[in-house]
Amino acid sequence: MTLAPVAVAAPHPAAVAAAESAWREGGNALDLALAAAAALVVTYPHQCALGGDLIALVRDPGRGIRAVVSAGAAPRAIDVEALRAAGERMPPGGPHSVTVPGVLAGWEALAGQGAAHPLAGHLRRAADLAADGAPVAAGLARAILARREAVAADPGLSALLMPDGEPLREGTTLRQPRLAATLRAIADGGPGVFYGGPVGEALVAGLQRLGGRHDLDDLYAHAAELAEPLSALVDGARWSVAPPPSQGATLLGLLRTLARAETPLRAVRSLATARDALLGDPRRAPIDIDGLLAGATPEAVAGPPRVTGDTVAVATADGEGRAVILIQSVYQTFGAGILEPETGIVLHNRGSAFSLVAGHPAEIGGGVRPPHTLCPAIVETAGGAIVAVGCQGGRAQPQVLAQVAGAAAADDSDLEAALARPRWIVGARDVDRGRETVLAEPGAAAPEAEAAAAGLPVDRLPGLADVAGHVQVARIASDALAAASDPRSDGRAVVLGGGDA
After folding, report:
1. What value, to the nearest 5°, has the Cα angle with vertex 10 and ends 411 and 30?
2. CB of 103 within 8 A of CB of 54?
3. Secondary structure of the chain: what % helix, strand, coil (to 5)?
4. Whole-model pTM?
5. 3-state class (DSSP) for residue 118
6. Which end of the chain has less Cβ packing within 10 Å, N or C?
7. C-alpha span between 194 and 202 (Å, rounded)
């Protein structure tokens, strides 16, 4: 069998290996993305899970670019007044931070966009990986240590990741038989097993035991959304992003602002402030897209609580012109701090991004989706190349992507070198700082004078850091495919050429 060339970048070697297997079976860019994504919920439970959300972009040469938005809503019976009585902000973890997981519905929607094989095969491959076990990656080992108290406090997480009372070390084999059984059950019975069947019943029962207000109808009501992307022309390249509740408009606004030679720190703060003030669920009320693109005075408004983001991106492309950028997440490291023991599923805390402020666009409500940090992008360059790019990085994803934008929009750039360049970001609670701070890797051209004028401290990091994002990128150019994986992640990138299998 002669196979078309493909490119894939993902933050874990097992995900790339799964994508290679899908390619050898005749898979295209969609199959590679799905295979890698399914492997990542096994190997990277601190950053993504079946209990998380997904936002992706798909470029098909015959149909253009489409967004797949599979972001889940708060349970219909959520007690908003009780949450307000308990504090000024949403709880950062626990059952009330859990919204309906969208990953599985997102995968099914992506498979329907032209994958060569059904989703079930990718789920069975991931189930084998969960049963056989995979070595604990450096990133997972760091995450267990960083969130040791939260892991130890949850029976499901502690049994999996601290079986003898001590965190699993890098290189230790991580086996997940319950998750393997869940993946096989979904492969055999379809997504309905999750969104209305026995897996969903187990998840709902577990959340209700912890005080959650979820029921099976909340899961049954979820559906992935196929949407038109937002797009903007920046320096001759067209950038396409997902619409709200994704923060994609923030990336477009930042790219346009920086193209006008605005000072970078002011641009970053202005667009982040607008996002915090204006982003919400367009199914409930219209979103001020123009405001998101234009920015706001940094001190003008306060938005939802800032929570650390943990996410994975998978970028794929093939020789037939398809490109996929898929991002899936549990939001904070290990999400809500809950692993449902019967299913082996880690649950996200995406609901912690809601606001408790009455009238805010991100105000929590039953059946409402929270604002999303996930920010995949596809670039159509002036020279005709197609680039799929996305990253881990929570609220800082637009900042990270803006710093690799020049390389992404160049037809012949060295992608690996671009991702290795030092970066800087701005954050506060989301980067474990008590106040707004500029964090800079060694050698990064951080705007120190601008920070000093704004009264912001600058912290120089000791080396390349997770907080500066894990970028994954795949490119289709006129003469070749290319891909690169961020050196801050545990990943790799490969280009597989169209010889015989």
Report:
1. 80
2. yes
3. 35, 20, 40
4. 0.95
5. coil
6. N
7. 9
Report yes or no: 109 and 70 within 8 Å, Cβ to Cβ.
yes
- DSSP assignment of 231-286: EEEETTEEEEEPPTTBSHHHHHHHHHHHHTT--HHHHHHHHHHHHHHH---TTTS-
CB 145 within 8 A of CB 169: no
Segment 449-482, tens digit of pLDDT: 999 999 999 999 999 998 999 999 999 998 799 9
d(CA 424, CA 464): 10
Q: How far apart are CA 387 and CA 240, in angstroms?
A: 10
* Assigned token pair, 198: 């026995």
- 455: its two tokens: 């009264």
Q: Left, alpha or beta for 455 (phi > 0: left; psi -120 to 50: alpha)?
A: left
Q: Does residue 73 contact residue 44 with C-beta atoms inside 8 Å?
A: no
**Cβ contact 386:321 at 8 Å:** yes
Of 337, 367, 340, the closest CA to residue 354 belongs to: 367
Query: Using CA atoms, how far apart are residues 197 and 64, in angstroms rounded to an integer?
Result: 35
- Exposure class string for 327-359: b at 16+ Cβ within 10 A, else e: bbbbbbbbbbbbbbbbbbbbbbbbbbbbbbbee
Is the Cβ–Cβ distance between 155 and 210 less than 8 Å?
A: no
d(CA 349, CA 116): 33
Three-class SS string for 171-239?
Answer: CCEECCHHHHHHHHHHHHHCCHHHHCCHHHHHHHHHHHHCCCCCCHHHHHCCCCEEECCEEEEECCEEE
pLDDT bin (cut points 50, 70, 90) of residue 432 is confident
Closest-CA residue to 373 (of 393, 389, 388): 393
Read off the tokens for 462: 């000791």
Of 404, 372, 381, give the one whose Cα is nearest residue 469: 404
